[in-house]
Amino acid sequence: MNLALFDLDHTLLPLDSDYEWGQFLVRTGAVDAAEFDARNKEFFAQYQAGTLDPVQYLEFALGTLARFPRPQLDAMHRQFMAEVIQPAIRPSALALLRRHQDAGDLTAIVTATNQYVTAPIARALGVEHLIAAMPETDAAGNLTGKLLGTPTQGAGKVTHTRAWLEKLGHTLEGFERSHFYSDSHNDIPLLSVVTHPVATNPNATLKTHAAAHGWPSLDLFND
């Protein structure tokens, strides 16, 4: 058995699910448009520049989720999946996932986006294992707005991936072949510790880094 890890946003999806969730909340009137949209765009620009403070962002994102009782939040997420995510799922991404799954690879999505937003997306993509930022919930299942543990961003992806593998009785080094597909230079730490890093729909910084290190590049959304 080999290992296949995938970033989510702009890797398996041609969009950023966290950003689009925020835009969905604005569009449907669930949050104040002017205030939320400005902060959401500011954080997205910081992410693209590699300057985002992940804890600060997650507290903002999870604090927004905590405003809504869980039944209302879940109904909103179902609408988000139907209107935004499902139409964005591409055959090329599904084919790449299925190729690894059919080969018997242990497959997981490793994303900095929180687990509440991404768990239904992982299910829609047919991926059982998800490593994502974990929101705290109360006894009734409502989100509290707090983060459990540490962010799954940058070097944090390496830490969380190793912890996940340890729970399954594996180590990263125990796989003969380990793949990680990502679009972002923010994921260079995890790309650097697998045997087969693949710059997937890479941004300019990752594309340059990949070329310098002899990593292959993949343009997944040409279908």
UniProtKB/TrEMBL annotation:
| InterPro entries per UniProt | HAD-like_SerB, HAD-like_sf, HAD_hydro_SerB1, HAD_sf
Q: Which UniProt keywords apply?
A: Hydrolase, Magnesium, Metal-binding
Q: Which GO terms describe its molecular function?
A: hydrolase activity; metal ion binding
Q: What Pfam family does this protein match (any one)?
A: HAD
Q: What is this protein called?
A: HAD family hydrolase
Q: What is the lineage of its organism?
A: Bacteria, Pseudomonadati, Pseudomonadota, Betaproteobacteria, Burkholderiales
